Amino acid sequence: MSKMRELQSRAGNPDLSHWKNNKLFSIAEAALLTCGIDPLDHNHNFENNLVADLQFKNVVNWRHAILLIRAFKEGICTHEIKSPCVLLNREDYHGNGYTESKEQSALGISDIGDICIFGTRIHRDNLHIWLNYNDYFEPIQSHTISAQNSTYPSHEPIQLNSIVSLPAPIYRTPALDAVQGVVNKFWVSYDPDGNQPPPKQIQVTEWIKANYPDIQAADICKYIDKICRHPEAKKGGNTKVNQQIKIKGVTTK
Q1: 102: which DSSP letter?
Q2: pLDDT the model gives residue 141
Q3: Which tops the pLDDT comparison, 131 or 1?
């Protein structure tokens, strides 16, 4: 059983589907959702208050959630996890607290303790990459079948929303992150034989620019689209729809 499935099972497999349309999560939200805890049930503005609340109520998986928060903070400060918005907790001369925005490229290990877990954001795709790399999802299961004294590998069906098509690389660049994001967003569940039209190049390139601030050059966005695009989509898209159009255009004598 994967870490994610085990955590969700312990928590009673709660319905968290109301979060499915969110693209950006705070560190606190990402950690709680991963552990099967609804962040709406624990609305706090300070990390210490959240920790105390989880501990006092003895919420299932609270220890894992707290350590996951720490792991996400470390990942952002070591640039293992990309964040489009980083906020640090600060105090003025009078002891009044406030948050300060800082470029992730300027972060270091010394900033871990100052990361604001409620204002710092993680994109869904980057969270998926980190969780997949750290074995939170089910691995691809395989077994062998015999035929005429020979064995052949056969893969069991798996849920597409539980894995990513490309392995999360140890070596990371903004472009590689964008490639992974495009695969997850547009192509993991694409069926060339269904009635689902493929995304247009302009849709993909605009999505890249909106979600990956470091990738704004038009040519790079187009290259990423070409790399990720399904072979059938390169030929003109939905084969089934095309066939139907051709049939409708045939006239009988």
Answers
A1: -
A2: 56
A3: 131
Domain-wise residue ranges, the chain: 2-132, 172-188+197-232
What average pLDDT is seen over the chain?
82
Residue 201 φ/ψ region, left for φ over 0, alpha for ψ in the -120 to 50 degree band, beta for the rest: alpha
Whether residue 133 contacts residue 75, with contact meaning beta carbons closer than 8 Å, is answered with: no
Which three-class secondary structure string do you get for 27-81?
HHHHHHHHCCCCHHHCCCCCHHHHHHHHHHCCCCCHHHHHHHHHHHHHHHHCCCC
174 sits in which H/E element = helix 174-182
Question: Quick check: 89 and 118 in contact, CB under 8 A?
Answer: no
Alpha carbon 27 to chain centroid, angstroms: 13
Tokens of 42: 């624990």
Tokens 């606190």 sit at which residue? 28
145 strand-pairing partners: 152
* Residue 85 three-state SS: strand
CA distances from 20 to 68, 81, 169, 181, 185 (A): 20, 20, 25, 16, 13
Long-range contacts from 8-14, C-beta under 8 angstroms, 24+ separation: 8/36, 10/36, 10/60, 10/61, 11/35, 11/36, 11/37, 11/60, 11/61, 12/36, 12/60, 14/38
Question: In sequence order, what DSSP letters do the residues of 210-245 get, joined into one string?
Answer: HH-TT---HHHHHHHHHHHS-HHHHTTS-HHHHHHH
Of the candidates 52, 20, 81, the one whose C-alpha atom is nearest the C-alpha of residue 38 is 20
So what's the pLDDT on residue 123? 94
pLDDT at 237: 46
